[in-house]
Amino acid sequence: MVDFLGEACANDQIAAQFKNGSRNKTAIAENLDRLEWFSILICQEENHIKYWQHIETS
Questions:
Q1: What is the pLDDT of residues 7-28, one digit of tens each?
Q2: How far is CA 35 from CA 26, 38, 47, in A?
Q3: What is the pTM of this model?
Q4: What's the DSSP call for residue 3?
Q5: How far apart are CA 25 and CA 16, in angstroms?
Q6: Which band of pLDDT confidence, cut at 50, 70 and 90, is reported for residue 39?
Q7: Closest to 32 measured CA to CA, from 44, 20, 48
Q8: What 3-state DSSP class applies to 57?
Q9: What separation in angstroms does the CA of 23 have from each of 27, 38, 43?
Q10: For position 7, what pLDDT does the model report?
Q11: What angle do CA 4, 29, 20 make, to 5 degrees?
Q12: Among 2, 9, 21, 40, which residue is least crowded by beta carbons within 10 Å?
């Protein structure tokens, strides 16, 4: 899971969960809500910290 304590670090961690994500990390960071809506990412919040996780699809 990825937390948003450090946004730049979080963007790298989110991008790392995707194939070729490092090339697309800006687009991924800008579209987190859309990725969640399409069930590509899930968001959980604990203690006011958001955690994002890539959902494996087949």
A1: 555 667 777 777 776 677 778 7
A2: 13, 5, 23
A3: 0.54
A4: E
A5: 8
A6: confident
A7: 44
A8: coil
A9: 9, 21, 22
A10: 55
A11: 115
A12: 9
Strand order of the sheet with strand 41-46? Answer: 2-3, 49-54, 41-46
Strand partners, 49: 46
Cα separation of 27 and 55, whole Å? 17
Length of the chain: 58
Pairing of strands 2-3, 41-46: unpaired
DSSP per-residue letters across 11-29: HHHHHHTSTTGGGGHHHHH
Residue type at 9 in one-letter notation: C
Higher-scoring residue by pLDDT: 16, 36: 36
User: Can you say how many angstroms the Cα of residue 29 is from the centroid of all Cα atoms in its chain?
Assistant: 7
What residue numbers bound the domain in which 33 lies? Answer: 2-54
